[in-house]
Amino acid sequence: MSELQLKLSVLPVEPGCYLMKNSDGEIIYVGKAKNLRSRVRSYFTGAHDEKTMRLVQDIVDFDFIVTQSEIESLLLENTLIKKHYPRYNILLKDDKSYPFIKITKEKHPKLVVTRTVKPKSGKYFGPYPNAYSAHETKKLLDRIYPLRKCNVMPDKLCLYYHIGQCLGPCVFNVSDEQNQEMIDGITNFLNGETDGVMKELEDKMQAAAKELEFEKAKEYRDLMGHIENTMLKQNMLTSDMTARDCFGYAVDNGWMSVSVLFIRSGKLIEKKAEMFPMNDDVEEEFFRFIMHFYDLNSNLMPKEIHIPKEFNAALLDEALPATVKTPLRGAKREMVALASKNAKIAAENKFEMIARDEARTIKAIETLGDLMNIETPRRIEAFDNSNIQGADPVSVMVSFIDGKPSKKDYRKYKIRTVQGPDDYASMAEAVRRRYTRVLKEGLPLPDLIIVDGAVGHMNTVKDVLLNELSLDIPVAGLAKDDKHSTAELLYGDPAEIVTMKKNSQSFYLLQRIQDEVHRFAISFHRNTRRKTSIVSQLDNIDGVGPTRKRKLLSKFGSIKRMKEKNVTDFTDIGIPKNVAENIVRKLSEQP
């Protein structure tokens, strides 16, 4: 099972948005879902049209943000598309944005519905998911709060004055106090304080119905419905334009998961989540993460930071150039709760993936044992050699426990007894040194030894184990094809190919082991050659013996860097002046 399949298997059954990524980590598609699990999985099952098939072929990873409702995911989807411009979101990307209701910043302000936000030009409310309701609410507010309607001030009263929807500032003196009173009323209304107006409309509707004026009663009822739709509470948006980050957390199995929601211009634009092992109490770890987060991302510093109420915000408030709060009610508290919900789901997903991955690898080694007719190889140790025409020969050993690399048990061996290129003798020396030490120190023996090679390498290792160390440990060989890829597993006496499917988890495990031991051998050999090259160029310099060679190597790392230094650079690390002069002179003479 691939990493992508594992992530698909633990998706939450929650509403939200998902972000599909290609091999470069680029977001190529943003979508919304009532049920993230079923929606995202649907891309990888069943038949699709040509466009979707091209999208699916480019997907190598995905991320998601959980929301509280479908309407939140709708608004968040639009925000994310406008932020990332994914190439597969052609229709939505080019579509209109959601509308705002705006009070213009003028001597005699107007109330307008707009899709363009210019914060300095007025006060904005929204955006609103239902454009029709936004316009209808604006019409209602026009009836209640008679601000001017015309774009250019006329020289005579217009129809709006005569129907009571304008105070006529073109002719009459309308004071700043009158305008401010109407602005305050609209602001309260659009911030959700609609009880008074709703009660008035309810009374008018009942009165109209009692007088059998059903058309008028229906008009009042419809206006109330429009108000409810437009004022629908949804956490993805806030009524102000303050830049803020909302942090939430979850603790599970000794790990902390932290999620941060970025809110800019009243909209949730992005989520980041991190998981790390805890070495301190919850508050210390949480605060340490936030401090480190802004240390690495200082350009992201918002005006406000919101954190859960159980933490002492004053500590962070003093340490950061932002106002740190613990909101106790309303949409801001709910946003912090949503951040914690995302953190909790991230932790649950991580451990579910780990559990499934462990089950998968345990099954792989159990199957490998069955195929080879040996006990389940819980501990596997693999050997490989590396040299160039016999120069600087090395061998390495890597250890896999329960199908996972155990890097603390890796070992490196500089070959001491072999002259010239002799792969078999080099491997014999490494195996001899490894298991002599294991027996001497009472360390655990492996259940299976794998050598990077074929029958000759296998027989060499068996000879050392049986005839020199009296150890009876299964030994297998991994042979490669002409493309230098894992081709087959050899085992038995005489050695035979172990039949297994190339797409099985057992074969994937063998590939990982062979790739890892080869990587480790090449890395060790390159490092050894580099050090040998440096030491050899320092051999003929008066005053530079083994101790000073090690000191120079530790400090400067390479001959190239030493050639860039002057006498003072060497004397500063304790090299005598005359020796430093010798070093600078000799290195300058070398090509």
From TrEMBL:
Intracellular or extracellular location(s): Cytoplasm
Domain UVR, first and last residues per copy: 195-230
Keyword terms of this UniProt record: Cytoplasm, DNA damage, DNA excision, DNA repair, Excision nuclease, SOS response
Principal subcellular localization: cytoplasm
Pfam families: GIY-YIG (PF01541), HHH_5 (PF14520), UVR (PF02151), UvrC_RNaseH (PF22920), UvrC_RNaseH_dom (PF08459)
Domain GIY-YIG: residue ranges: 13-90
PANTHER family, per database record: UVRABC SYSTEM PROTEIN C, UVRC/OXIDOREDUCTASE
Record text on subunit structure and interactions: Interacts with UvrB in an incision complex.
Family from the record: Belongs to the UvrC family.
Functional note: The UvrABC repair system catalyzes the recognition and processing of DNA lesions. UvrC both incises the 5' and 3' sides of the lesion. The N-terminal half is responsible for the 3' incision and the C-terminal half is responsible for the 5' incision.
Protein name listed in UniProt: UvrABC system protein C
